[in-house]
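Archive maintenance. Older records in this collection stored only the sequence; we are now back-filling the structure field for every entry so that each record is complete. The fields below show one back-filled record exactly as it appears after the update. Entries are processed alphabetically, and SH3b domain-containing protein is next in the queue.

ARCHIVE ENTRY
Title: SH3b domain-containing protein
Organism field: Schleiferilactobacillus perolens DSM 12744
Length field: 443
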Amino acid sequence: MATFWQKCQHFIKKYPLIVLLVIVVGAATGVTTALANYQMITVRASVLNVRQGPGLSYNVMAQVQSGQKYTILSSRNDWYQIRLDNNRIGWVASWLVDNTEVSQATNKVGIVTSEEANIRQTAATDAGIVATAKAGEKVTILYQAGGWSQVLVNDSVGWMRNDTLRTTNETATTVQSNGGDASQVSQASIKTVTTKQTAYLRNATDDNAAIVASLSANTTLTYLDTSGQWYHVQTKDGKKGYVPSWLVSLSANDQPAKTAPTKLSEATIMLDPGHGGSDSGAIANDGKSYEKTYTLATAKLVAAQLRAAGAKVIMTRTSDSFVDLSPRAKLSNADGVDAYISFHFDSSPSPNQASGFTAYYYSTSKDIRLAKTLSASLGNVLPLTNKGVEFGNFQVLRDNTQPSILLELGYINNDKDFSDIRSTAYQQKIANGVTQGLLNYFQ
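Back-filled structure field:
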């Protein structure tokens, strides 16, 4: 009887092509299996940040959950490049795949007890030092094992010996910023969150949830509570929804975001009488009547009428004093006013060459509605020609983060216009028009 190997040799000689095909297919299958095993990771951490590049300085673009599997495309500097389910590509830290990633809802705060404690690259006393922490400094504890704690402090992630730390019962909410730094705020003290970049306010804690509003960078929102890795927040105009925690920074000091006024009596208005002091502004044809005089007189009448309507009024000047342009806009920004109105009277190259009034805006998104509303209301009460709304590249508007306009309320070197400008009756009509315009604007 022929042995097994004799039969195999006979089969190979008789059917060499079939044998070769089996070998090739088998080899390919083995390679495919090996590659598949090598190129897949399983998320074991409860939450894992996916970043736009291989490092902590890159933005968080998504978060993945425990048990999910992803394909590894490449590796660089101890980071894995992976492909997400929606075909987006990002990076995850290799040293966090097999232990615990930052969990923003559950991390504890540790307080450094040593006079100076080293933060090392790995959990070993001979590992490289990435940073140091002083006694009393707070750190976020990410993971603990074998007498060591993995911590986040300032812009460094590393390891500290447990005997250099005291773990507290305080829960840290840690938010990575665009630059990779981290701010640590006790959840109990959070009052506001501010968007680090453009973001969507959604009606649920899901990237695919319906969009409630689009938020620009540096938008301040009132913090309501935390839901997993999302914050429940409210906008100035009362819209509620959720924003991803990794796209915002937190504040324990700011007051909750002010609700946008729905009527004039709830609003804060800044009135800016143009020029003043050594800056006379434009000069009338008589050579002795100055723009600064009439902007202040007009603004005072407007202020009185707005206060009578219940509005809070702030003036950039209340006397014949010089105020530079930059502080005017800064004052508006610092006070977070609901509307900023700068009062001026125009001048043409030649006397009696031009007539009428104009409302200027700088930003179409925040200023133009205010400009159009006041232009219309002034047009209803002023005897001069309404020249409409125009773009104006003025510093007090350009540097202003609040809704702001500049009004040129007649030509001071036009004799007919000036006869109105200098009269209290005309100035009162301006006050009437501005007040009515703001009543319309805030309703």
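Update note: The longest strand covers residues 165-176. The first helix runs from residue 4 to 14.
Entry marked complete.
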